Amino acid sequence: MAPRANWKGFLRLSLVTCPVALYPATSESEKISFNQLNRATGHRIKYLKVDSDTGDEVPNEEIVKGYKVDTDTFIEVTKEELENVALESTRTIEIDEFVDKTEIDPRYLIRPYYLRPDGKVGHDAFAVIRETIREMNKVAIGRVVLTNREHIIALEPLDKGLMGTLLRYPYEVRDPKEYFDEIDDVKVTKDMLDLARHIVEQKAGSFEPDKFEDQYETALVDLINQKRAGKPITPKERPRGENVVDLMDALRKSVGGAAAETRAGPKKGTKKPRKAAAGQKEMLMPIAGKKPAKEAAAKKPATGARRKSA
C-alpha cells in the first residue's frame, strides 16, 4: 500500500487539468535509528519546548513563528497569515516550460517524488500529459508548494506515472570558485592518463543498484545482534591512508592489481546484497534464528537485555 501523499492538487498543461497526488519516492524509515537514553536509568530522553528567558514550558498552541530582525527583535507570523500567501502553486502544478534533461545541472536536484492521478477521474488527462512529455523526450518544469515553500519541480515519465524532482533555486547553489580556486594547476602527463584510463577500462561496468550493499547498516545490525547475544565487542582496526610518494609507481601497481582482480573474478565470501526488509526486521529476528520473529517480538526482554546505552 502506498504511503500517505505529501501533497494533493491539480496538474495542468494549458487547458488540460487532472487531479494528482504527490508521494515521496525514497524512504529513510528502513535504516537503523537510535534513541537517546539516560545512562543511569536506561529511560528515553524527552525534549521540552521552554521559554528561553523564564524557563517555563510552552504548549504548542502558544508557539508562533518569528523572523529574527536583530538580537532581541522578532516579527511574528501566524499560521493563518502564511496560509493566506496567495500562490497558485499551492493547489496546482502548472507546467511552465519544457527543457532537455541534459540542461539541468545535477547540483540543482534535491529529491524525487512519484506523481499519479488522485482518485478515479482524470486518468485520461494524466495520460495525455505523460505521453506528451515522453513523446517530446523533454522534462516538464513547474512549481509546487510543499511545507509552506514554493519549489521548482521537474516532471518526467516513469512507467505509468510521473517522477517529479524538486529543484533548488540559484541562490541555494554555492559558487564553486570559493572552493576550487586554490587547487594547483597540475600538468598531467599522457603516460599517467594512459595508465589511469587502463584502470578505468578494467573496472568498467553497468550501474546496478541491487548489487550495492549498505555496509555500515549491515555492521550496525551485526553490532546490535552481538550485544543482544551478550557477545564481547572487539574494536576493528581502522584502515590507514598512505601518502603517495611516486604517482607513476602507484598507477602501475593499480593496473596490475585491477588486472589480477579481473582474472580472479568475484571474491569468495562476497555477500550478495540483502533485499530491503520492512522496517528493521533483521534486528527483530531472534539471535538463534529458530523462533518466529512474531514470537520473539512478543516476549519481554530478558533481565540481561535491560535498555541501556553501551
Describe the structure.
The protein has 310 residues and is of the alpha+beta class. Helix 4 (190-202) packs parallel to helix 6 (247-264). It has helices at 79-83, 123-136, 177-180, 190-202, 215-228, 247-264, 281-284, 293-298; strands at 7-13, 16-24, 65-70, 73-77, 92-94, 97-99, 109-117, 139-146, 149-158, 161-167. Strand 3 and strand 4 (73-77) form a beta hairpin. The strands form two sheets. The chain has an eight-stranded mixed β-sheet with strand order 5-1-2-7-10-9-8-6. The protein has a two-stranded antiparallel sheet with strand order 3-4. Helices cover 25% and strands 22% of the residues. It is extended, with a radius of gyration of 27 Å. Residues 268-281 and 285-310 have low confidence and may be disordered. It starts with 6 loop residues before the first strand and ends in a 12-residue tail after the last helix.
Alpha carbon gyration radius: 27 Å
The amount of beta strand, in percent, is 15-25%
| Strand elements, count | 10
Structural class: alpha+beta
Secondary-structure element order, as H and E?
EEEEHEEEHEEEHHHHHH
N- to C-terminal distance: 37 Å
Strand arrangement, largest sheet? 5-1-2-7-10-9-8-6
Sheet having the most strands:
8 strands, mixed
Percent helix, as a range, is: 25-40%
Shape: extended
Number of helices: 8
